[in-house]
Design goal:
Length: 190
Amino acid sequence: MHRLRPGAKLLGLFVFATTVVVLRGTLPTTIALGVAILLAVLAGLRGRDFWRVLRGFALVAVPLFAFQAWQQGWERGFEVVGDLFALILAASAVTASTAVDDMLDTVAWALQPLRPLGVHPERVAFAFSLVIRAVPSILEIARETQAAARARGLERSARARLVPMVLRSVAQAQLTGEALTARGIGDEER
């Protein structure tokens, strides 16, 4: 997988994501999970790296599955959580096997034809880089707030985990926005 060009990987990820979203049912979800696990293994996500992705996803997956199963049955819960995990694994496989700079260059190149329509490919690529940077930061904030809640004996309290996490994530986003503004990014004529 490492030898494929970044454009081919991103196109493959787009096709995979579209297929996962369009197809319904537990069988397509099971197949998508199998394909995503295979892609993750081929990309080198094994052992500790694989479990880190799974553990981070479990924070969202468990309550999401419980809610979906309660509202629409376990099949729908499996489908929603399985599809989401398949997408996360496939995206993790792409990011694990592709240098970030190569990926951003590919995004900027792919968006060049949209320049006459007012799209600024460099800005879009920059936005992608901000997202790539923000995800690990938010996961770290989630780990820290979970540890803080556990230290206070409130590990079962959703409020003790979610409220500080949301507030810290929003504060981090505001700091990032202020840093970008201070550097004059985004001030150009639109």
